[in-house]
Design goal:
Blueprint: H1 3-26, H2 31-35, H3 45-60, H4 84-103, H5 117-126
């Protein structure tokens, strides 16, 4: 496999993992929580999702011929930040944080459970992943 193919494969895998974590967090909030902001200086999960979607669409639509903002994107109506995979992961962390806050004691982990690293690593090793 070429370095380009390896990079593309790793990038796609990374984006899928970010999306999976976000989806599992979103599944644990109701509509009211989805649209709630913790305070006047915070964004709701809905605003963060809209922002990430706009950013990813801008970065990856026609990415070989144009980059950045598309004419029909209104970034100021989302809020400000920057760039792709790291950007999505950062906002994914915000989404999961807010979802965990709203779920409270009903929260179901979206990653490795507390005190579960040994079992997680053993399961991953048994599937040949590292």
């Amino acid at each position: 496999m070429s370095i380009e193919s390896e990079f593309l494969s790793a990038s796609i895998s990374g984006f899928r993992e970010i999306k999976s974590v976000i989806d599992r967090g979103l599944a644990q909030v109701n509509d009211e929580q989805f649209f709630a902001a913790l305070d006047a200086e915070s964004n709701s999960i809905a605003v963060i999702v809209k922002h990430v979607a706009g950013n990813l669409r801008s970065r990856w639509t026609d990415f070989l011929t144009s980059d950045g903002e598309k004419a029909d994107r209104h970034r100021d109506s989302e809020f400000e930040m920057s760039e792709s995979a790291t950007h999505a992961a950062n906002h994914g962390g915000q989404i999961v944080f807010l979802a965990k806050h709203f779920a409270g004691s009903a929260w179901q982990t979206v990653s490795i459970p507390r005190h579960g690293s040994t079992a997680f690593n053993a399961a991953k090793a048994s599937h040949g992943q590292h």
